[in-house]
Amino acid sequence: xxxxxxxxxxxxxxxxxxxxxxxxxxxxxxxxxxxxxxxxxxxxxxxxxxxxxxxxxxxxxxxxxxxxxxxxxxxxxxxxxxxxxxxxxxxxxxxxxxxxxxxxxxxxxxxxxxxxxxxxxxxxxxxxxxxxxxxxxxxxxxxxxxxxxxxxxxxxxxxxxxxxxxxxxxxxxxxxxxxxxxxxxxxxxxxxxxxxxxxxxxxxxxxxxxxxxxxxxxxxxxxxxxxxxxxxxxxxxxxxxxxxxxxxxxxxxxxxxxxxxxxxxxxxxxxxxxxxxxxxxxxxxxxxxxxxxxxxxxxxxxxxxxxxxxxxxxxxxxxxxxxxxxxxxxxxxxxxxxxxxxxxxxxxxxxxxxxxxxxxxxxxxxxxxxxxxxxxxxxxxxxxxxxxxxxxxxxxxxxxxxxxxxxxxxxxxxxxxxxxxxxxxxxxxxxxxxxxxxxxxxxxxxxxxxxxxxxxxxxxxxxxxxxxxxxxxxxxxxxxxxxxxxxxxxxxxxxxxxxxxxxxxxxxxxxxxxxxxxxxxxxxxxxxxxxxxxxxxxxxxxxxxxxxxxxxxxxxxxxxxxxxxxxxxxxxxxxxxxxxxxxxxxxxxxxxxxxxxxxxxxxxxxxxxxxxxxxxxxxxxxxxxxxxxxxxxxxxxxxxxxxxxxxxxxxxxxxxxxxxxxxxxxxxxxxxxxxxxxxxxxxxxxxxxxxxxxxxxxxxxxxxxxxxxxxxxxxxxxxxxxxxxxxxxxxxxxxxxxxxxxxxxxxxxxxxxxxxxxxxxxxxxxxxxxxxxxxxxxxxxxxxxxxxxxxxxxxxxxxxxxxxxxxxxxxxxxxxxxxxxxxxxxxxxxxxxxxxxxxxxxxxxxxxxxxxxxxxxxxxxxxxxxxxxxxxxxxxxxxxxxxxxxxxxxxxxxxxxxxxxxxxxxxxxxxxxxxxxxxxxxxxxxxxxxxxxxxxxxxxxxxxxxxxxxxxxxxxxxxxxxxxxxxxxxxxxxxxxxxxxxxxxxxxxxxxxxxxxxxxxxxxxxxxxxxxxxxxxxxxxxxxxxxxxxxxxxxxxxxxxxxxxxxxxxxxxxxxxxxxxx
Length: 1062
What we know:
There is one protein chain. The chain is mainly beta. Among the domains are: 102-135, Ribbon (Laminin); 139-174, Laminin (Ribbon), CATH 2.10.25; 177-213, Laminin; 216-250, Laminin (Ribbon), CATH 2.10.25.10; 264-309, no CATH class; 312-347, Laminin (Ribbon); 393-427, Laminin (Ribbon); 448-540 and 557-592, Jelly Rolls, CATH 2.60.120.200. Helix content is 4%, strand content 34%. The chain has 2 helices and 85 strands. The longest helix has 33 residues, at 1000-1032. It is flat. It starts with 39 loop residues before the first strand and ends in a 19-residue tail after the last helix. 26% of the residues are buried. Residues 422-594 form the Laminin G domain.
């Protein structure tokens, strides 16, 4: 683009009328007078003259404007003009060229060339644009080939070539084979960014043919043959039985049929014949032993090729002395008498022939039998009448056993327990003292075992123990049960035997036996509580190791110990390894016999203590708070707060109890709240036990309160036991405060100071006595430090609750430990004898009965209306001075349900509710429960009793004239015969009674009118019901319908005979 140096088109105007060639001066020019002719132009000369020449063009005609400017005439003067310049030029005549490069428009060192009305920038390498302002991106044309990356520069670029290429533009494919990378004569093939070595026929392999080829690596040899490496080749070493270049051929050894006599040939190279349930060859398959074959011979032949005839008798198949005869492919046994079977293995049951006579029982034996005969028969088959016991000399307690042997009759005495000898004249009973065991020795080598009878009251202790060089066997009592222990070759076998809910330390004789037979340890107990009177426990024992020894074993002795440090009692009939131990052979210090005195008869333990018989003495297990040998010593109780005083006790422990803590004591109180005990350290209580609303609660430091269920403030003595674990005993102190808190603490958060009795306080087994113990009776003084007490009263003393006397109306007061009981006169009742009993004076005339009501009594009478006269009752009510103002009438027809008004209960609403609550003065006599309610107390009478307090049993039969008494629901009633009625069946039907009060003459007609309307309604209902019942089935009246209606009156009522119910 060409830029002009001026934006103005034209030039300053030329003003004046002078000719353009003249020069004005102060002297008039010679041409001023225009001397030349028209068309000529005067020109002054230097000499003062002038010349006339042709007229030159003027104004725009003379083309005064340069460089293509526009000339515009100006004014009237023909020489006047103005030049309008084209862009890039300036001056009056546009003769000046504007330099556009003066402003240095070209960038980045470009060269500027000024042109007409424009300039040109000659840019250096790498830049472009009108002012060379744009850097040229040489990478835009993608000069880099084969995936090379182009890096742009100033006026240049650089190519980063992909692997395998080179050159300025990555136009060259690099030849990787120039470095000859392939070794061992491998042929190199150039690739893009790589090469490929052809190792064929070189014997090598790898990317550069650098590794020798291992032909054996591919396991070319079959059947586990060994491979030998060579250069480009290999060689297989075959196992015997295999062949081929690669040992792939399994040579068939059975092809020649080597097995004779039809034997089956089995190749050892067949893996299917190894392992599994049907294996032919032992072990697992091995190529090392795969050569050869095995002949499976048919029965009767053997040998490697089944060429040997088998002698079946060589294995001596015939048992029990049978004679064997060899046969082709078999044998035959000729059995002796008593045996049969293919190999004479079966014993012939000779008892099938019933050889035993005279009721004898046959037991089959090997090749024979044995007869168990009745007492009077003997011989091999019970055919001999036994006469050996005729005139025998056995003592009366023994049993004579007749014997027939070698054709001779004799007898033997079966001795009772505790005796021995031909005629049971030797005593086998002796006593054992604890700590003084009896030692004895017996010959070793017999059957290992212990058998004896024992008697004791101790639950634990060793009964007997036998020991030899190899084994040791012990029989002992553990917790009242038997236990046998065998130590053999360093191993122990423990065998317990016990009966549930039955201990063997009951002071009676018990027979036991422990033995080792055929590797089994067996313990036996004969007892009535066992099934079939025999209990058995057994356990297998590991067999002893066999030690080969040619030298004979010398005779040895077996040592025996009877009793021990704990056992005390009596033993008899002791057998060790089958040898009987007699008392006379056990030394001089053995106590013969078994003298025994019952240690707990008579009972020596007082206050309900349990007596434990210790055989030679007794031990009393005392209930708390009693102790001592006979439970005669009582830990004294302490009364807190007697007479309203403040009482407390404090103890200092030498060491903290733990890790577990059990707090126990006896408590008796009627106060529902109070502080019982605190374990503290300085001023912080770690454990607090207190009463709240009659319940015992325990608070541990930082934990929730624990509550013992139930009420503890009933005035009875209770044993309280609280147990705490290690996690509940944080911050537990060594100070124990009882009955009150710390000296500076307020006990009100825990119910205030305790009032009542505490006794036998213990922390674990440590007793905290409230009073100094008697001299010489201090118990473990080292664990308890100082003790202090304030206002404690020894013993559990009651407050004088009868002062002042709370009993009214002449009642007698009896103190019942912080409470009282009033014994009331006949006509009064209640806790303080404040309630009057009106019925005690029998104010009601028969047949009416008197029943207590609030502030008085009522006379209740019953009447049954049938086809008879009316019933009349009379009486007086002395409990009210007011005139009779009302009358109540209750009747029953067929509806057995009575809805009672307030104040009455019972099936027929004839029992008034008494105002008194369930207490000592409202006792249900038959043991029925007293149920308190919002109005009074009721007795739920048992079957056969009735009345307010269940005082009327039907067993006394209060019903008259043959009536039947029936009690139900806390009341009773008399079911009368047809001729009588009334509560006791005392009213004879048909005898009218006079009306004593004229007041009823007015009330009765009104009542009769009401009853008549009621009867009409009932009659219509009955007729409708009977009509419905006739359509539905038969109907028979119930017993209640037969009994009729019931009438209750507060006063006198006479019903006229004209009015009847149903």
